[in-house]
Amino acid sequence: MYSTEQSCWFIRKVICWRAAASIAWAVLLLPPITAVFVILSRFSLLHPIHTISECFSLLTSASAIFSFILLCGVILMVGFLNLEYYTVIPTIACSKIALLGQLLHPRQILNSLAHCIMGIVVAWSCAVTIGGRYETLGYTCMQSEGSPQMCLNEYHLVFLLAGAFVGLSHSLLGVIHNMNYVSFHTVQQYKYLRFKGSLPLVVKCSATQALYSVRNFIIVYFFLGYIPRVWICKTLNLHLNSSVHPLDSIAGLLDLSLLYQLWISATFLLFTWYITLLLFRIFVTEVYSFPVQSSFTEDAHQCLPKVVTDRKPIILKFLALQDLALLSQHSPSRRYDVFSLSQPGGHPHNWNAISRECLSLLADLTQRLVGYHDTVATNGRAKSLSTGSERKTSSETSVISGSEEFMSPRPNMLMKTPASVFARSIAGGPQSPLTAPFTPDLDSPFASPALRRLTAPVEQCSPWHGSVQSPHIMRREPKLWSTSTDAQVNGSPPPPSPASVPSPQQEPSKPSLLAQFLQNRKEQLPEASSQALFADSQAHIWALEGLSYLVQASFSEDQFGVVQTTLPSILGCMLVLQEAVDRHFKLPHASSKPLRSSSSMGDSNYKTLRFALRATLKTSIYRITTTFGDHLNAVQMSAEHRKRLQQFLEYKE
Amino acid sequence: MWLHKYDYLASVDDDWFPGSIERTHHKGPFPAEKMCSLSLFPPPLALGQSTLCESNNELLPGSNTEDRAKQDTSPLSLYFPRESLKLHSRTESSSKAAFLDHSETLWMRSAAAWRDGGLSGLLTEITNSNTEVPKWLSVSSGCTLALLQRVSSFHGSLFPHLTLSSENMIAEFSQVLNWSDCVVRAFAWHPHTDKFAVALLDDSIKIYNPKSATTPTLKHRLQRSVAAVQWKPLCASALAVACQNCLLVWHVDPCSLSTRPSSGCAQVLSHPGHSPVTSIAWSPNGSLLVSASPMDTAIMVWDVAAESCVPLQRVGGGGVTFLSWSPDGSHVLASTPSALFRVWETRMWTCERWPCMKGRCQSGCWSPDGSRLLFTVQGEMVIYALTFTDAPGISSGTSKGSQAAAVVADLSETTFNTPDGDIILGGEIQSIAWDPRGERLAVILQGDPQAADRPAIIAVFKTRTNPIFELLPCGFVQGEADAEPRLMQFHPNFQHGALLTVCWSNGRITHVPFYFLSTAVPHFGLSGSPLLPRPQERPSALANQSLFSEFIS
Question: Are A209 and B334 in contact (CB under 8 A)?
């Protein structure tokens, strides 16, 4: 298809190169990090000179070079996993069971496994580098009868297990903290400066996270340490040295030197991984400047007006919108291109494409908010009506005033949830289960058949399912606000036409006890549902900024008056959205501020996107009203909108 | 004098023609003679008269009584007598010793000391209670404490301002003259409407709006020692407040009838190590807020809605004292406590370093188009100018600036003969402000608080930025006999010229309008003519003499 071809060019030409550059930098940074690690791990206060010379000789030895090559391999792998698993729209688990589903998703299990193995590799390298008693798994020991035999070196084993544990917990925490989420910054900085600015945070995060992980590991090892020990002994035919304390005792674990080495190794491990992640985020979110129009037709699909409307690689859409917001703000020459007319014909194709796409994005959000507001009771939980009693299977479409005109015809299935609108895929088909990373689906072992039957119709009735639905047909049963809707539930792609959604005529079956228990666990967390609603709002923020700056600039720069024709619909769309956002923030859970944790590498930007959206929306309307002032009285609009606009003109909002 | 951007002394360019008095080209680092701008000014008013307004190129005096009568009727002229404010007689820390229960256990006291004073507090506590702790502990903590003090005193000797208490630090670096003794500590006009916020000595903020009867009073537990307030542009409600320990962003609903908005209406923005905040600036497009603290070498760029910040760290300077965002949004001036300031470019947030020779940059202001920066340096009595010309189109990152700053005005002390005796005006500059049309430039001169004949005063220049930059004398703005100006701000969108709002030392806030026809903005019949009749342009001989003009070569 055409669209897959397009997605290919961007992923192939830009994203992959960016990822490769970030991995290359991470590999380049590895030698100094390793050197610092070696010095810290072997440092002794009493012989500082001796330590340093020893470190130098160690760094040039063959074993160090071998383990260094291994570490490079690990970095490559981490970088590849970053590229494979990143998302620009976080997957927000709206209930505890959804989170569990995310953790047990096969794709996630694969990720955890990979991190476990990489953790073992890094820990082995660390153990070899530190040397001394940690170096080998087996050693010759004298048994009581005097015959030498191979004994298990428990220190080495502890290192390997700690590596695996830290890797696993890194992977699991990554899901909980949405570490694969890549956020875009409002403050543009050069890559080097951004990297330098975030470095202290990375050091702090890796040190504290390593501390917690090592603590948890020691607790686990204290209770369960004998299992791997016995297993290793059995498989490798090693013996336990009875003259040495076992390490899963209090005395064994209170070895300060061991704890320090464990901690410093875990810090090293996490630091290299975090650095890779940080570089990946910095490189991927770098501004990409799309041409507004090209003189060659074969490049037309790479131009901004075309790219903005693409929805396949979502990163492309985001970068295009970011570029739109920046060009509308900073670059008069590119704005000139936006306002220009096509050469034969004299149509403002560029402006039309851009404004239509931005408006349809905003209309989508409006609809989503209206739908959410109608389904949710004032306490933020789902309205609980008797199950199935008023389940309607109609697919009637009604129209939310003022928004239908911006709906561009597009495949219906792409508009259902934030996750599915922007489901990222690398040249894969949209229905491949691997395309939506971490999407909790009902194929996970926690979804009982009964539950699956219960939820399937619900998914059909998501408020943003179908192009438009009237609010009154959406009051149904408890709703899942997890973003886990879509094709995986039905197994087949929904029909492309918005007007003909066939609904399975299903009688509600009596839920089993287990299903009820699970249903309770599925009770949505109110704030999370609000977060999920705005999960992709970065796109809306850029659309608002881009539109409002362009409209502002059009006051003096638009020679042909192309913006004037769209001004009423832009104002109408923004005012409708403003109303919907205002209503949403009247809900008690929507305006509660999330706690910000600064000591985590997970980007919590998505938690505050709704506030950012609200502020941007108001500022955008004000930007237009202050620029145009009383001229807006000449714009055609409904009386209600005019009243609303008057409030803005008088600075009373 | 002035250092070149690249660290060598620069001469004033030939294009920069310094003044019309001497008409000498200054070559070399130091000007051969002083050019005195103030001598061309009309003499100040007699005692007991205060400036009413500017009309027909003259500053009109008003006698005290009629002036006051006029002011009392005007809804926006305010008077805050010092006696009316309920002040904190004692700060919390000074009363601590009187109330602390000394019979607490060592652990409790240590925990309290850790909470209140951090590591040094804990060490002090352990050292002081040497009877209860083992000897080695008290001795070692005493040694550590001494070491810490040595280190911090060394650090303090590099950057002397770090030893100041936070109140004194705000007073030192504030734009307000004599901040600690000031009844009105901060003032901000709303950028779009006729309302303004006033921060008072009792740490409350009042919002006045001529169109509404209610004057909301904002009070917050964390709102102490307000150094600056500023309204968010393109927003009706958000007001940022720079406090001693944090930043507050109030959301005051303009339609609400409540006179005491709850502290839930305020967002608290804080970052460890970033206090006291002495300066804030909103970006003109309303999206970002920057804040500065003399204790922190980084300036914070806040995304207020998300409550997240990006620190922009640069080595050198020892802190950031004053920020000013250019009206076109392209540059931010950030001055440091040492003889260095930076001009940030806001697209990619890179900066230019500008080292000064003598002292720190005390104040600065931008021309309306953001192309020209005027600033003053502590210890010097002149105003410098820098020009920035952005290359059109996609100018990424680096902004092309001029290579050296030029002196545009010399405000050294000048003696005026008045009927009440000689008075000496001029000297160091506390703050400067440029009106939004770029036609009037107001300067608060510090004067000498000890000497009666050297009062602080506001000098106003006429300026022209198009086609060439010119500076002409306008006059002095004076208040009542016993009042000296403390802080001033121009109204952001006054229809008939410029409106300068001045807060005086006696707690009075007055507004001085300057009526003129703007040369820059074309006037339509609809937008209204000046209020006062203008029979004819009657240029006075003095006012027409140009102090500074930039010749086009």
Answer: no
